[in-house]
Design goal:
The complex is a heterodimer. Chain A is built from 15 helices and no strands. Chain A is mainly alpha-helical. Chain A is globular and about 60 Å long. The two termini of chain A are 44 Å apart. By secondary structure, chain B is mainly α. Chain B has a single domain, classed as Non-ribosomal Peptide Synthetase Peptidyl Carrier Protein, Chain A (Orthogonal Bundle), CATH 1.10.1200. The longest helix of chain B is centred in the N-terminal third of the chain and has 15 residues. Chain B starts with a helix and ends with a helix. The chains are: A mainly alpha, B mainly alpha. At the A-B interface, helix 11 and helix 12 of A face helix 3 of B.
């Protein structure tokens, strides 16, 4: 049997195009062939998890059944008329929902040779979706949940492997409705545009920076590794080439996922909005891997800060905001993997966030101290972009190779 | 009704430290940097204690709560 990873090779796009034709024809006549969409989605899931990846496929099935049970058990507990809505039940549901991900993420720490048998491509993103459902159920915002819709949302194949991370209520609103022909034509147009841009990003620019430039810079930088901290001009090259590769590769991937979603009549949220034009780090996180940072913002940061402020855990609200940043970015770092560079990357961003907040407070208090014009804006953009690229150099793990490996 | 409006605008003035929320109630609080996640949490807590409006974090969608006028409308609809 063949195995095709999403958006990796021309054959995948060929199958995708063929599979999408009936969807497009149906939509143009303002009809959704739900049974067809389901079979078509299943076929693409099988393509990802078949052949050599069949163990992952089995893990996915087991995982899905488990998460379905957790989400529905909690939903029934929370929405029945006599629900006591106990906090510990909510915590238990969240913990159960993340247990599989935690096991998969921590297995390499104990057994670096073998990835966890529970793991499969996309487990993080599916877990984020389920946790979102549990939290919104707790808040009373999700009032109905059906097994079919839960599965359609969780296993929506265009976004299954790496997001963007949609929200249940938003997804179902699109899923339940059939756009008018005019609306669909706009969506189709945007979808095709996204996919074309995705080709440029991932296969032209991502390839240029990641495959053509990066290895050369890395090679040269390794030759200068005996310098103080290994600092050299090629290392600067590594920093920029890696950052641009990371952006174009991932943004390209996200454009494919969003584009295919649009063609299927689902307006999956976008993941990148010109991140390198951000004028400070807070703005950057509103523009970079947006669905992930919004997930962390809404489900970790805001809830954590809300809890702390309600129970007055700390006196100073600034301290609480800063503690929130530390928790958020540490979790994000550890989620990327338990290596020193992911954790330093997290701490680095938390520190910059805290300093940025202090700076913004200073600016607010003394409005006439600092000029604000086109020039300062451009300077701010340049500084932010460079700081971000530096953080990506940490994130890349190249410093680990440069400093430690093979010494 | 006017009371709600006044209370909300006072909360926002306190939180943002700016009178602009009153003079220009259609400005985007997030785009202008006047309100961030921390400010949002404070806003939700103040709405709870001063107006008894229970707005959970799940219901907070930045685009729906973007301007002082939109926030007032939201709060009035939730009362």
């Amino acid at each position: 049997m063949i195995n095709l990873q999403p958006y990796e090779n021309p054959m995948y796009f060929g199958y995708l195009l063929i599979g999408l034709i009936p969807v497009i024809i149906g939509m143009l006549f303002e009809k959704r062939f739900r049974w067809y969409e389901t079979i078509f989605s299943l076929f693409f899931l099988i393509l990802i998890f078949d052949g050599p990846k069949v163990a992952q496929g089995i893990a996915l099935i087991g995982y899905t059944i488990f998460e379905l049970c957790v989400a529905f058990a909690y939903f029934h507990y929370r929405t029945n008329d006599h629900s006591k809505n106990k906090t510990w039940v909510f915590y238990l549901a969240v913990i159960l929902a993340i247990v599989p991900l935690v096991i998969v993420k921590f297995t390499p720490l104990f057994d670096p040779q073998h990835p966890s048998i529970f793991g499969f491509l996309g487990i993080s993103y599916l877990t984020f979706k389920v946790v979102g459902i549990v939290m919104e159920t707790r808040d009373g915002s999700i009032k109905s949940l059906s097994i079919m819709k839960f599965l359609q949302f969780l296993l929506f194949f265009p976004t299954i492997s790496s997001g963007p991370i949609d929200r249940y209520r938003r997804f179902i609103k699109d899923y339940d409705r059939v756009p008018t022909r005019a609306q669909y034509l706009t969506l189709l147009d945007k979808g095709v545009h996204n996919i074309m841009l995705g080709f440029l990003y991932k296969f032209v620019l991502g390839y240029l920076f990641g495959t053509m430039l990066l290895p050369n810079f890395e090679h040269l930088a390794m030759l200068s590794r005996n310098n103080f901290l290994g600092i050299s001009w090629p290392l600067v090259g590594v920093m920029y080439a890696y950052s641009l590769y990371l952006f174009f590769d991932f943004a390209g991937y996200s454009l494919f996922a969003v584009g295919v979603s649009y063609i299927m009549g689902i307006e999956t949220p976008i993941n990148f909005n010109k991140p390198f034009l951000s004028w400070n780090i807070k703005e950057f996180w509103n523009r970079w891997h947006m669905t992930l940072s919004f997930w962390f913002r809404d489900y970790i940061y805001m809830r954590f800060v809300f809890f702390m402020m309600k129970h007055k855990i700390l006196k100073s609200r600034i301290a609480m905001a800063n503690l929130g940043y530390l928790v958020l970015f540490l979790v994000m770092g550890i989620w990327h993997g338990e290596t020193w560079y992911y954790i330093v990357y997290g701490l680095f961003h938390a520190t910059v966030m805290i300093l940025t907040d202090a700076w913004l407070r200073l600016k607010k208090r003394h409005k006439n101290w600092f000029p604000s014009n086109k020039f300062t804006h451009v300077m701010a953009v340049i500084m932010t972009a460079n700081m971000v690229c530096f953080s990506f150099l940490i994130f890349s793990g190249f410093l680990d190779r440069l400093w430690f490996i093979g010494r | 009704m006017d009371n709600v409006r006044e209370t909300v605008l006072n909360i926002l003035t306190d939180l943002t430290g700016s009178d602009e929320v009153k003079t220009n109630p259609d400005m985007d609080l997030f785009e202008s940097g006047l309100l961030d996640s921390m400010g949002t949490v404070q806003l939700l807590l103040e709405l709870q204690s001063q107006l008894g409006v229970d707005a959970p974090v799940s219901e907070f969608d930045r685009t729906e709560w973007a301007t002082p006028n939109k926030i007032v409308a939201k709060v009035e609809s939730m009362q």
